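To whoever is on call:

I kicked off a structure prediction for a single chain this morning and the downstream step that reads the tokens threw a length-mismatch warning. I double-checked the sequence; it's 99 residues and nothing unusual in it as far as I can see. Pasting both halves so you can look.
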Amino acid sequence: MNKKITIYEPTLCCDSGVCGPNPDQALITLQDTIDKAKEKGIETERFTITSHPKKFQENPEVIKLLQEKKLNALPITAFEGQIIKAGSYPTLDELIRYF
């Protein structure tokens, strides 16, 4: 299975965003979701807008959504390049649905 989920994110304090004294609960949940997805054979990759701007530019759908909704579009989740969710992180059930 070579298919993958890509999550395009706003600027985070570290790679996972789960750091500092008060990490965002949504990011904790996302990390748990990614760990469970990996156990089910679902490959995921994450890119932040400041650390990986070229990855954002490589997906025309991501660029279009950012032009329309600005940073409110983030996070954006794509399956094989096609946007499947924007504005919030995916759940495990949503990721599994695409596999």
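Update from on-call: the warning came from a stale cache, not from the record. Cleared it. Sanity check on the structure: The chain has a mean pLDDT of 87.
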